[in-house]
Amino acid sequence: MLKLIAPVLALYLWACSVTAPGLTASEVRLEAAAASDLQALNLTVRNPIAVNNQVIHGRFLHITDIHPDEFYRPGSSPDKMCHGGHGDAGRYGDAILGCDSPLELMNQTFEWINTHLKDKIDFIVWTGDNIRHDNDRNFPRTEMNIFDMNEHVSGSLYELFKNPDTSNPRNLVVDLIPSLGNNDVYPHNLFAPGPTLQTREMYKIWSHFIPQNQLHIFNRGAYFFREVVPGQLAVVSINTLYLFRSNPLVDNCDRRKDPGYKLFEWLGVVLKEMRARGMKVWLTGHVPPNEKNYDISCLRKYIIWSYEYRDVIIGGLYGHMNIDHFIPLDSRAAYRSLAGSGKVSVADWDGDESDDDDDDVDLVQQPPMRIAGGTPLNKVRYMDSVRSDVYGKIAKRRKSGPHGDRYTVAHVTASVIPTFNPGLRVWEYNTTGLASMLNNQPASANWDQFFAGVDRHMAYLDTVDDVDHTRGVSMFDYFSSRKDNTLPPKKPADIPVGPAYTPQTFTPLRYTQYYVDLASVNAGKKPFGYEHEYSTDDRTYHMESLLVENWLSLGRSLAAPVKNPVKAGDDPALAQLWDTFLAHSFVDSDYENLGYG
To answer: What EC number(s) does this enzyme carry (predicted)?
Structure first.
């Protein structure tokens, strides 16, 4: 019995050793030239906050799916994946033709970020796939090739953002938070529970970006988090390959020996600590959560954790799909699915069940969506299904919770690889009151002791078998108040919802999407550069902020003509809204009009 109590005691001790934050924060007046630069980028002009040696601008960059190809040859044939033959392969790549990114596209993208964004953002969410696709038998990928290119891309970004004023290699000018992509591993999609050669090598490659005290956790499964605003905001990097249906080494997230189960055990400990410290969190990863990508047992747990920690979690940031869109995730559907598995009752969901008008809302495992190199096919059909089956099933406002908090939102951004046109996204968030919060921040628990406790706790859980056959019940179940340690406790009723639901510090305000007009750049009509594609508060979307309720409202409008064709089918404004949204989904490449399905 003492052995079983010890990990619980260790968890309690994490909060017993505290350190004073020692922070001094103040608003800094923005110079006229800096304000002009922001306006040119269609970004909001606001004064940054200086915190010790850090400057907080209230912005961050999301970049994903670079897919650099060292064998790309301008003037080669797309039929040969732009590796040979004679054709029209452009200098910077070509939208839709199906080749990976020329190294020059990657290098010029990094240089554009260095020139235009480096001094305007707080951190970078970098959601994986830094390797070419394995789609040419004449140029097979090897494990060493993958490590080498990951190291090359990582090293290039480190050189851009390293801090020349410190000897600490982890003290960057701009924090980078990487996530593992399904093409960053060998063979692609296949990733085993750690520690393995791959987890050890990726830690070495990303050592400048991962806090040293999370080495042991990272070696377990390539997941970690980074505190990006001291004591206030963190970015949690999830290894989505453990939730991904296309990973043959993953079964589900319900067995204690499966890596997805262990990921949720770790995530639960982290979120509990973030709530205790009063911190907010972005979840990030490569593969976005939906019924095509995640095993259903993993998807419903992801949604339920997001729901029960909606005071902490702001949202999710993902890549992989190359299509710019958003995914509302329904906690009621997740609880219904979990109830069907016998793990909980529908009554455990604390939303409004009265006068139910959406009984058909449920999580249903769907055929996987293949994302690979080559010309993209059937992506309009996919977006039509998102319109009808995702946006069309968003509950009415009355049934969505007081602040839309029945839902959480996963955001999928455009990729650098020219599946369509290359894209980058800059998010802006509310920093009102942040300087005061930092100056008055109470002492908090020591992170080193926290991680030591996490290591002990996770190591202990490794010793717990799925079933103790001598008792007929799991030892963990026998002494635990919950049978499944990867299901969250209910959110306490007295804790208000977080920045995703009501305006407050760290609420997302807007984002601006940038893209490269490859046809014009390759033709010499424009110099290389990312230009403004759209912003969420422009005349098309009119989004006053990026609260969950704003996204639900947009989703309802996008789906209205197909959900209520009699009332909305002939509305030209709604038709134009969908046409523009679809064009943005494919990064203004005109894909939707070219007959690829």
So the answer is: 3.6.1.10
